[in-house]
Amino acid sequence: MQNENYQLILVESIEENEEGELQVLDTGETDPGGETNEMQLSILSKEGMNTYNTFKVRVQIRTTSQRKSVIILIDSGDTHNFIYQSLVKDMGLNYNANSGFKVKLGNGDYFVNNGKCEQLPIRVQGLCITQDFYLLELGGTDLVLGIEWLASLGEVQVNFSDLSIKWKEKGKDKMLKGGLELNRTKASWKSVLQTLQQEGEGYLIHYEVTDSSKQDQELRREWEELIGEFPKVFQKQVGLLPKRACDHAINIKEGALIPNSKPYRYPHYKKDEIEKLVNDMLNTGILRPSTSPYSSPVIMVKKKEGGWRICGDYRALNKITIPDKFPISVIEELLDELGEAHVFSKFDLKSGYHQIPMKESDIPKTAIRTHEGHYEYVVMPFGLTNAPSTFQTLMNYILKPYLRKFVLVFFDDILVYSKTVEDHREHLRKVLKLLQDNQLVVNKKVLFWAERARLLGSYNISSRGLG
User: Fold this and answer.
1) Residue 213 lies in a domain
2) What angle do CA 158, 162, 166 make, to 5 degrees?
3) C or N terminus of the chain, fewer CB within 10 Å?
4) Count of C-beta atoms within a 10 Å radius of residue 315
5) For residue 151, what are the contacts with CB-CB under 8 A and spacing of at least 6?
6) Structural domain includes residue 345
7) If DSSP states are collapsed to H, E and C, what string results for 255-279?
8) Contact in structure between 77 and 12 (CB atoms under 8 Å)
């Protein structure tokens, strides 16, 4: 690209959401040269942000059965070309699902693309651009043309004042013009100078407004009213468990030897932590002292918010447990039920497994041994082979009246979805009443009245579908 010797450094701050958006993933895939196949994507492209000179163009994508007008962003900060993955699925475009590569975001995070559309033709302003596009979740734009395409043009002249790109192709002049109407205007130079003279400092700020503050405050007020209406659902501690529709049973294979393992060795500081955690669980009724012939060692698991939790290493017990035949739903099939939903709220149970009681006769089978004693779980512990199916069975039973209508449940993720805010208000009230009637407690940290949500850490849903 031909340009003056000016340098613009655009600093953009993207806050991580409650669920830790933009996870760091590593495919471990390498190219023949032994280096990681690393693509780069700017935050501008990933989030679909607009500046006064963002280069966006309306283009046409055609298939044998449909034609669609979409927005494409041209960005020299991206190494490759990308396409919004929901657009690919909506239009039924062919793509290679095995072409997964790491993509590095401008802030240093990594994530993985979900496939590649090979040689996709794009029609724009009398031109036909045919390129490979990698599937990705994009915001505010449908496609991105990066260096991969720009480098193929040879010598390029770019004019940001009228948003035009010029190049030669087979001796003929070619030009592509960006849509000024697709961008927001810039601050006047007079106002910038006035700020510098008065304050002595200047800032380049990019501010994305997602919802009006008034509307956001109103929704937050309504959510706080719902919390007040159903306080037991949001209490800090899980109380004594009621009789559930199902408890957790451990059925042992006939003739199997009872596992009786010694505790693992831990350094002194971890023993202190184990003692503290065991005492906490004894006080809350999760554990009780045991004289069971069963014994599993404990393992320490680092919690993502910091601190530790302990659970039994039940591998030996699981080997002699008869597995359930409960069919776990395929997440993609569940998401097909969302239909035309535009509003989403999501919450999960507080220590969900510990809200399900153990079958009394099977409590001794959960026994764990630490350096200081022998204990057994009164509630369903983590790590048992059939625990997920028991949990899903209970949630399906409790929320059955509303499943496939406005509720989706996948393990401890409860998603409430609605077409309108008015419907959503009523749907939330019905779900929270069911949870309170069944003495289930959820985490107070929730996603509410959102236009998009993330399930299981990797499935992003919105009114545009799964992407």
Assistant:
1) no
2) 35
3) N
4) 14
5) none
6) yes
7) CCCCCECCCCCCCHHHHHHHHHHHH
8) no
Domain boundary at 208, 242, 271, which?
208
pTM, rounded to two decimals = 0.53
Domains of the chain: total: 2
| H or E segment and range at residue 221 | helix 213-229
Extract long-range pairs of 322-329: CB within 8 Å, 24+ residues apart: 322/251, 322/252, 322/253, 323/385, 323/386, 324/386, 324/389, 324/390, 326/386, 326/389, 326/392, 326/393, 328/388, 328/389, 328/392, 329/392, 329/410
Is 321 part of any domain? yes
Give the range of the structural domain holding residue 290, as residue numbers without chain letter. Answer: 219-466
For residue 227, give Cα distances in angstroms to 17, 219, 429, 433.
Answer: 21, 12, 10, 11
Asked if 333 and 462 sit in the same domain, the reply is yes
Q: What is the CATH number of the domain that holds 396?
A: 3.10.10.10
- Same domain for 304 and 197: no
CB neighbours of residue 261 within 10 Å: 16
Query: How many helices (H) does the chain have, and how many strands (E)?
Result: 10, 24
Supply φ then ψ for residue 312, to 5 degrees: -75, 145
